[in-house]
Amino acid sequence: MKRIALLSMLALSQALPATADMLPGYDRFDLKADHRARPVAASIWYPAANPTYRAPVGDGPIFDPTFAFIGPAIAEGKHPLILLSHGSGGNADTLGWLTTGLVQRGAIVLAVNHPGSTSGDSSPRRSVDLEPRAEDLSAALDAVIADPAFAPFIDADQIGTVGFSLGGATALGLAGVRFDGAKQDANCSTGPEAADCVFFRLGGVRFADHPGFERDARDRRVTQAVIVDPGFGGAVNPETLPNALTGITLINLGYADRLDAADVGPAGNNLANRLPEATYIEIALANHFTFLGTCKPGAVELLAEYQDDPICTDPEGTDRAAIHTQLIEAIATGLGL
Question: In Å, what is the CA distance from 35 to each residue of 83, 125, 135, 191?
Fold first, then answer.
């Protein structure tokens, strides 16, 4: 395992390419997948060949929007394709800070709103099934590489995945890691806060009762993976680790403020040392929620009023936008961009 501490990544960041001056292209589509009863909301971000009209994406009461050109032509050339999996209760559009950063490095980013674990549709019973979440992304990949509007611009030899939190577990599944429901139940009985159990316990979930938590979801078209604060690292099936994708990058947010359930370092579940040739990165002045979008004025008070998670509250001294810049650099490096 290679270990990196990102304390001054800003000083090491390279200048963005000239395409950084162009907003990303953005479009939505309905993904029809055999494993889902209804179409899945999907979106695609990509290098734009020209401007169309500029519009906010992911705008709402909490997070700042990201601006993009809607539906422009795609920039010439072959582009890496990145599959993005959001966290529990999240959605793809509010991660525009990340998708924009990856597009500026030449990538196409393909994302979905995972049914059952997305904004306004987040259920403990449905979120526990990791297999359909991974299948959402594999089906989206199938659709895009068969679409004549996008297929000529995709480098099929450079397909990566990025996942955060529950999406981190999903991306690990795409990379060949499997999980053990009985082990997760045992972890929940001894340390529910440290084992990512509280939300699922509220729904009366027993992980061993959900075959989708354990099934093989590997997509061998995926050649790179970056995993940020993943859930369920303490419940991986160790037999699957030696044959998982080589060279995964794992990122932990926070040091004193780190989420115990997501700690893949030596003091946590040590997943970073157990995966083949993994790179481990720590960003100290952050917490789990720092990965989410920058927040609007008044968002902290609004969340408190509704007794929601403090998703806009960072450790004292944290500059969320600056951490995002560090994350873009680290994630792009892990994806070979």
Answer: 18, 17, 8, 33
Place 4 in a pLDDT band, splitting at 50, 70 and 90: low
User: Which pLDDT value is given to residue 108?
Assistant: 98
For residues 192-216, average pLDDT: 92
Task: Convert the pLDDT of each residue in 123-182 to its tens digit.
Answer: 999 999 999 999 999 999 999 999 999 999 999 999 999 999 999 999 999 999 999 999
Rounded to whole angstroms, the Cα distance separating 169 from 186 reads: 18
Burial class for 317, CB neighbours closer than 10 Å (0-12, 13-18, 19+)? exposed
pTM above 0.90, yes or no: yes
pLDDT value at 9 more than 50: no
Please give the single-letter amino acid code of residue 126: R
| Distance, CA of 180 to CA of 182 (rounded, Å) | 6
Paired tokens of 89? 């209760």
CB burial of residue 69 (10 Å; 0-12, 13-18, 19+): buried
